[in-house]
Design brief:
By secondary structure, the protein is mainly β. The protein is 11% helix and 50% strand. It has a five-stranded antiparallel beta sheet. Strands 21, 22, 24, 25 and 26 form a five-stranded antiparallel beta sheet that branches. It has a four-stranded antiparallel beta sheet with strand order 3-4-5-8, with no helix packed on it.
Length: 406
């Protein structure tokens, strides 16, 4: 081979090899720079420090990133506070109050009634900063926030604080209206009809709405509820309490399948209804001559009758009392009577002798003194209202009336 040609070939190959190595090096260097940039922004370092009072562990980021580098929301807004001192700071949507512990280099924040969703707070100090990511928790205040650690339990000074938020606030209101109750058959429960209303009172659409009459255990669901709209669920429930009080709840998310972010609880009272009870007693009697254990004969009054529930409500703890010769005693008890039901009672007594003086020559049978006795019943309705019957009298004579007798 010609030496000149050989040397030229060597130089050409060497040049091509150098170009190839340089090209690969440049590509690798570019890739490393990209990876380094990503790592510097997204990788959490071990020296971020203790979590906040709300339990949020900070993430340490290098440099001075903005809210838009953390959260990809088109409605995102940023409020930057610099320098960091006690006070209230804000813009047209957010008003946040800071309480700074200068010695500890920590601070607390509270957005009060601001209608915004706080996504996160970035605390700048030293070569980087700590991000407290609240995305999904809908927190409105926190404490113990700080910049990254520069040494054990010591933080960099507070350079500035950026509040990353989106305007709007999920809110709802629940109201339960309980209508008049009616007795159920059997008279031992009340059926109340009610309306459970859920309103979207916030500034964001709501999803996965769940409303509950906690007292009755009734649960209702709706997929969506637009801002300013409401939905009403109508139902009824049974209770043994007249004028029952209870609780209603509702909750919702701001996206389908998302975390519950809005909830409300309200109390309700159902009206006290009047369900009057009515007892009715009947009674009849007869007078007979009986022989006692001593072989003597005397009079005995036998009586009987029934007590009836003459109302639509169940009546319980019923007692039947009988009065004769100025004496009263309980002669019968009933645990309960359903509407329309009756129960029999019976008994007897020996009447006391009267003090009447018979006229000379005696009297006719129709003029013989009658033995009069009275019964009445009392109890209470299933809803603890006292009820008492009208009295029922029975008049029994030794001899029957005989108008046609001489």
């Amino acid at each position: 081979m010609n030496l000149k040609c050989y040397n030229s070939a060597r130089l050409y190959c060497h040049s091509r090899l150098n170009d190839l190595v340089k090209s690969r090096f440049i590509k690798q260097l570019a890739l490393l720079l990209v990876i380094s940039a990503v790592i510097s922004l997204q990788v959490t370092r071990a020296d971020a420090g203790a979590p906040s009072a709300g339990g949020v562990q900070p993430q340490d980021f290098s440099g001075n990133p903005t809210c838009s580098e953390f959260f990809g929301n088109e409605d995102l807004r940023e409020l930057k506070v610099e320098p960091v001192y006690d006070g209230t700071y804000g813009d047209d949507m957010l008003s946040v109050t800071l309480n700074v512990q200068q010695g500890a280099k920590t601070f607390s924040w509270d957005q009060g009634d601001s209608s915004v969703i706080m996504l996160g707070v970035f605390v700048k100090g030293g070569p980087g900063g700590n991000l407290y990511n609240y995305d999904g928790s809908f927190i409105t205040s926190d404490a113990g926030l700080h910049s990254p650690e520069k040494s054990s339990n010591k933080y960099y000074g507070l350079s500035h604080v950026s509040f990353c938020y989106i305007p709007g606030k999920p809110e709802l209101k629940v109201t339960l209206t309980c209508d008049g109750g009616e007795l159920v058959p059997g008279g031992d429960a009340i059926k109340y009809e009610y309306s459970l209303k859920v309103e979207n009172t916030g500034t964001l659409p709501l999803f996965d709405i769940e409303a509950e009459n906690v007292t009755a255990g009734d649960v209702f669901n709706a997929a969506t509820l637009a801002v300013g709209e409401s939905i009403t669920f109508d139902d009824d429930f049974l209770t043994t309490i007249n004028g029952i009080s209870g609780t209603a709840e509702a909750k919702a998310a701001v996206e389908g399948g998302g975390t519950v972010v809005a909830n409300d609880t309200s109390e309700f009272d159902c009206p006290v209804e009047t369900f009057p009870g009515k007892l009715k007693v009947t009674k009849d009697c007869s007078t007979v001559v009986v022989q006692n254990g001593y072989g003597d004969y005397g009079l005995q009054v036998n009586y009987g009758g029934d007590v009836c529930n003459d109302s639509a409500v169940l009546i319980k703890d019923i007692i039947v009392e009988e009065t004769h010769d100025n004496m009263t005693e309980i002669i019968h008890t009933v645990d309960f009577l359903a509407p329309g039901d009756c129960e029999d009672f019976s008994g007897s007594y020996v009447p006391l002798p009267g003090l009447d003086e018979l006229p000379e020559g005696g009297v006719s049978g129709s003029e013989v003194r009658a033995f009069v006795d009275t019964v009445k019943a009392s109890g209470e309705t299933f809803f603890k209202e006292y009820v008492e019957s009208m009295e029922a009298d029975a008049s029994c004579k030794l001899c029957p009336d005989c108008p046609e007798c001489p």
